[in-house]
Amino acid sequence: MLKYRIIRLRAFTLSEVLTTLGIIGIVAAMTMPLLIQKYKEQETVIRVKKFYSVFSQAYSMAVLENGTIDTWGLEDSERDEDGLYTDGSLAQNELFIKKIIPYLKKINYVSISKDNSTLGFVMPDGTRIVGLWFDISNCSENPKLSCGDLDIATDIKPKYNRTSEDQKDPNSQIRSSIFNFEIFQDQIVPHGMRSDNPAIYFDNYCKTGKRYSLCTSWVILNGNMDYLHCPDELSWNGKTKCGR
User: Fold this and answer.
1) Residue 134: φ, ψ to 5°
2) Cα–Cα distance, 24 to 28 (Å, whole number)
3) What does the DSSP 8-state code read for residue 85?
4) Do 211 and 200 form a contact (C-beta atoms < 8 A)?
5) Using CA of residue 143, residue 60, residue 52, residue 103, what is the dihedral sign?
6) What is the dihedral of CA 172, 177, 178, 182, to 10 degrees?
7) What is the pLDDT of residue 110?
8) Residue 3, exposed/middle/buried by CB under 10 A (0-12, 13-18, 19+)?
9) Which three-class secondary structure state does DSSP give residue 91?
10) Per-residue pLDDT tens for 202-222?
11) How many angstroms separate the CA atoms of 237 and 198, rounded?
12) What is the pLDDT of residue 28?
């Protein structure tokens, strides 16, 4: 006579399943914000590098065909008592942008406004110039000195002013979304790149959080924004990433 063995399979109880799902949910809630933030930072790095590649090439072509920037008829920038561009400075900005535009493709050009709500052009990925400042007298006699600088924004609304309270708020997203480039007679470079000691900018502004817009050289060279997370671990000539 055949005997049958009954095998009883033990299943998870409802409470065990719910407990497991709860743990998974907690872990996901803890890690997802970090992953999303990391993704956004990498997207920002890509945008900054793309702008640098495209705009620096366009500027070099403009210099090649029109001469160095100090021969373009530009003058030093000025602001009025409200911190807005003077009419003369607006004209300078417009002239600069129009010198560059012929060498840029697929760019949405917008006339410059007095309050900086629009400034020249917007790239296909949304990156835009949000600040222009010229010190032509600074470089006209010494080509080693900067002729001015420009700020770009990667993921914020276009309106921006250097005197904005957002620039003083350490928790403001604006502060970590603005990147500064210096304009020289022959090229445009990330801020501090042509300095004899670029580490000074990183130590004084990036590690301290005083002015993240001057971290452009770090972003271009190291491909990250880890100075937002572990500034004390990083150094210009040493460790360039958080963790091991």
Assistant:
1) -115, 135
2) 6
3) B
4) no
5) positive
6) 140
7) 65
8) exposed
9) helix
10) 999 999 988 999 999 999 999
11) 10
12) 67
Rounded distance between C-alpha atoms, residue 89 and residue 95, angstroms: 10
For residues 169 and 180, what is the distance between their CA atoms, to the nearest angstrom? 18
Cα–Cα distance for residue pair 220/149, rounded to 1 Å: 17
- Of the candidates 163, 188, 153, the one whose C-alpha atom is nearest the C-alpha of residue 60 is 188
Type of residue numbered 183: I
Please state the pTM of the whole predicted model: 0.79
Q: Do the beta carbons of residue 179 and residue 216 sit within 8 Å? A: yes
Q: Report the C-alpha gap between 144 and 130 in whole angstroms.
A: 25
Largest CA distance in the chain: 110
Sorted by where each begins, the domain ranges of the chain are 39-197+210-219
Q: SS3 for 16?
A: helix
Q: Does residue 213 contact residue 168 with C-beta atoms inside 8 Å?
A: no
Residue 101 near residue 123, CB atoms below 8 Å: no
Using 70 as the pLDDT threshold, list the residues of the chain that sit under it.
Answer: 1-12, 28, 30-33, 106, 108-121, 156-175, 244
3-class state of residue 99 by DSSP: helix
- Label residue 73 left, alpha or beta by phi (over 0 means left) and psi (-120 to 50 means alpha): left
Distance CA 207, CA 47 (A): 22
Sort strands 148-153 and 128-134 into parallel, antiparallel or unpaired. antiparallel
Edge to edge, the sheet with strand 120-122 lists 108-110, 120-122, 128-134, 148-153, 178-183, 188-190
- Tokens 């304009």 — which residue? 183
Instruction: Tell me the sheet residues that pair with 79.
Output: 85
d(CA 64, CA 71): 12
pLDDT at position 172, please? 47
